Give the backbone structure.
Amino acid sequence: MSIKLTDKYLKDFITEQECNSAEIWNKAKSAYDKIINRTGEGNTFLGWVDLPENYDKDEFARIKIAAEKIKKNSKAVIVVGIGGSYLGARAAIEFIKSPLYNNLKKDTPDIYYLGNSISSDNLTDVLSICENQDFSVIVISKSGTTTEPAIAFRILRGILEKKHGVNAKDRIFVITDKNGDKSKLKALAVLKGYETFIVPDDIGGRYSVLTAVGLLPIAICGADIDAIMSGAAESRKKYLNFNKENDCIKYAVLRNILYEKGKIVEILVSYEPACAMMNEWWKQLFGESEGKDKKGIFPSSVIFSTDLHSLGQFIQDGSRDMFETVINIKEPQNRVIIPKDNEKIDGMDYVDGMSFDEVNHKAMLGTVIAHTDGGTPNIIIDIAKRNEKTFGEIVYFFELACAVSGYILDVNPFDQPGVEAYKKNMFALLGNPKYAKEKEKIEKRI
Ligand code: PA5
């Protein structure tokens, strides 16, 4: 296992007694039991718990075949989806490969994302890149009714049908609910003959990266999806048992202790730009799972040292209501050495011959001490390196920690009722007949 949690930088903020208090550990045990015994709110959405061992092997084989087909016939792939139907795949591709994946020398297709906003300009830009090359589309929506991917897909479908006629169906892959009565996207796929993959009933969007939702786009970038599943399975084996040495449970406990002490903002910190989308995935996972019933830790994120030159001031010295969880990637994928400068002009002789990651590591240690001194507690999570296996490990670690943490907080970690509020208003304003009554009331307030 390559994940390790360090809590030594919390000692100025949490006493040993608080850390071991029966009250918080009893809450954690009861949260954990709700997951194992499927007795908590939202218990019909626990399919992710056993997924790393129990996934549909036939579907998994079909994912690999579809990925190979796409790799052969496409120079670009547009992944259409939002929230849990988008973030996991992108997080994986950037974590395992690079945020500059599309620009790297490679024999796999470029990957673009649409349906994750409603911006005409963004859509136009992606189309201007992809339209004149061979491209395929993967459209992902569990409900099959989400506005953003639905309208982006309508445009893409039109372009592909104009270009390829009935053969457009060979370039369109749909990931959605298995039931065409529930998902309009499924009904459309059946009508048009698109290949479909299933988002299991018992797995919500933000817990779905280890299903076809994440795995098909990830397989296209050339990443080894077997290794991802085996990493997740190792995490499951290690963390799916209750004890005080379990780093995953400990993480859930520590963040709740900090929350009780007024630390209501958690910043996920990484020193690797390749983790920026992983941060976004994590923010959705924790934000949608915990932020409800007027409770929850607000999840935010930074990439250091980049953001030390922007948000660093605030974290060091601004309002003291935050804590940091630092993802420390121990080994870089490449080691770059700083050359000796014989002219000795830039005043940096003391780093001659060091590698960038040694400097990065010292920046991390210096920052942890400075921020802790400034009143911002730091939890450190070491990850050995960025690869498929560690991606699977950390995904499962955070999913389980999030569920335990949500139940400790006494919320349902698997629903997202608050997301509906903006949708109702938007639908009413757009003239959706279902919301005709609300339309007038809302228009008066604008
Ligand atoms: O986690 C969730 O459930 C949400 O973020 C959804 O993934 C997101 O709203 C997209 O929904 P859908 O997959 O139904 O289009």
Observations:
- The mean pLDDT is 97.
